[in-house]
Amino acid sequence: MKQLIVNADDFGLTAGVNRGILQAFQDGIVTSASLLVTGSAFEEAVNLARENPELDIGLHLTLVEEQAVLGREGLPTLVDETGRFPRTSSEFFRRAVLGRINWTEVEREIAAQIARFHKTGLQLSHLDSHQHLHMFPPVFQIVRRLARGMDNVWIRNSAGPWRKLPDVRMGRWIRLLGLNLTCLSARALHGRPLPQMPDGMYGFEVSGCLTRRVLEQILRKIPDGLYELVCHPGEDDVDTRTRYSHWGYQWAEELKALTAPETQVVLKEHGIALTSFARAFGYKSDLKSE
Predict the structure, then answer these.
(1) What is the number of alpha carbons within 13 Å of residue 224 lying toward its C-beta?
(2) What does the alpha-carbon distance between residue 27 and residue 77 come to, in Å, rounded to a whole number?
(3) Which residue ranges form the domains of the chain, and what is each CATH number?
(4) pLDDT digit string, tens, across residues 85-110
(5) Is the distance from CB of 135 to CB of 96 less than 8 angstroms?
(6) In whole angstroms, what is the distance from residue 268 CA to residue 262 CA?
(7) Model's pTM, two decimal places?
(8) String of b and e for 228-265 (b: at least 16 CB within 10 Å)?
């Protein structure tokens, strides 16, 4: 049986992203969203989630680019003088390799983001992260430890397919292979029992540019099991475009792909049942994709 969770990241980033995610849920195939508690439109996203209780909500942890929940005094190795994280994952990795990050600070910040989510009163269904840093072995160890005390919470398995899709650029595919190896390392270093995780993930190699054509290519490749498709729907509004144009995302294009009637037809043709983290709880994954 093919089960697919379609999860929209960055809920709470901007008002335009919030509107896009909500439309992709109401009129398209999105079944869950990951809340960015450090986003400028966080409070609006929380209100929208309360108004749409069938939308599954998880936590989109971040250790790069955004403002930290804790201040500079509590995170001297993790943030700059303004309390902002490193700009990119590459900068985060560089500082980690050089031993310039205190992992106790990382744990405190992740715990603070989890606490901010819990204060909303929303049901937490899953944990993932901006740029998939939760699968970096030292961070995975922290997230795994903090998740042990939570009931019915999944952790994203960011490992994707090893084969390259026709429309995927070579550079993105190479980055996917690197992420897959990181996921293998995290599991090997920390052993079993593993947390509740899907069998794998699709969408990383086309992050921010999921066209209808590529989406259909992905859906045709979904195997039996429980998988997650990560996406980034939104509106191409002035605020989102001005503040995050350096990402190169095509939020509106993804929204069109996720809400296209033809996408529903492909799902039916290939026997793919849409689900969410909350509805899929109890599924025992053996992580076949890795």
Answers:
(1) 2
(2) 43
(3) 2-275 (3.20.20.370)
(4) 999 999 999 999 999 999 999 999 99
(5) no
(6) 10
(7) 0.93
(8) bbbbbbbbebeebbeebeeeebbbbbbbbbbbbeebee
